[in-house]
Design a protein that fits this description.
Blueprint: H1 13-56, E1 59-60, E2 72-81, E3 97-103, H2 115-119, E4 127-133, E5 147-159, H3 169-206
Antiparallel strand pairs: 1-5, 2-3, 2-5, 4-5
Helix pairs in contact: 1-3
């Protein structure tokens, strides 16, 4: 009686070598994709660190104070698309809701074109609606060229002034170091978790 040789039993040495190389390539591609993803997360973490440090050197504006270009804002917004009959939809579109959206520098183009300009000179705690049209080349194709209405509330605002008490360089370095270490620890923990799956795949390919 012939012994069952399994999946690899009917393959010659060249076929086994080709299959092994293919598995190794898959493992390498998965690892490269993960490295690219982690790089993007680290870059985002660096941006968040810079924004937080910037807020530490800014004065919080009083309620009802008018916001200006360059201010740092925390806002809430809900966006809904206009319907064909010209009325505004009752439900927000996907991705159109944010409770605490951070604008690091008002007027720098962080939001949809035309939206930030309507916020300038509004007051902290103001609630208002704004009608805008998404650009024709907007990255979300389901929103490109569509007209929408946003309900916006300004939760808080911060401004850098000549009288702002600036933290020392040493404090700056310590705060930035702590925030960066925290971001890197989170990224490393996720990387170790994901790499375990890649290592298994590579180990199987090497056999």
């Amino acid at each position: 009686m012939q012994k069952n040789q399994g999946f690899f039993g009917g393959m010659n040495r060249q076929q086994k070598r080709s299959l092994s190389k293919s598995q190794q390539l898959v493992g390498i591609e998965q690892l490269a994709s993960r490295v690219a993803e982690l790089t993007q997360k680290c870059q985002k973490a660096d941006q968040d660190v810079d924004t937080l440090l910037g807020m530490l050197t800014r004065e919080k504006l009083a309620n009802s104070a008018a916001v200006e270009k360059g201010d740092t804002l925390v806002i809430g917004l809900v966006g809904s698309l206009f319907l064909e009959d010209g009325t505004v939809g009752k439900m927000p579109f996907q991705g159109g809701v944010a409770d605490n959206l951070l604008i690091s520098s008002l007027g720098s183009g962080e939001l949809i074109p035309g939206l930030e300009e309507t916020i300038i000179m509004k007051n902290v705690t103001d609630q208002f609606t704004v009608d805008i049209t998404f650009p024709e080349q907007y990255h979300a194709l389901n929103l490109a060229g569509k007209k929408a209405q946003f309900f916006i509330v300004i939760h808080s605002a911060f401004r850098k002034t000549a009288t702002t008490s600036v933290i020392t360089d040493r404090q700056n370095e310590l705060i930035k170091s702590l925030l960066e270490d925290q971001a890197k620890e989170q990224a490393n923990a996720q990387e170790s978790k994901d790499e375990s799956g890649v290592q298994i795949a590579s180990g199987e390919a090497a056999q």
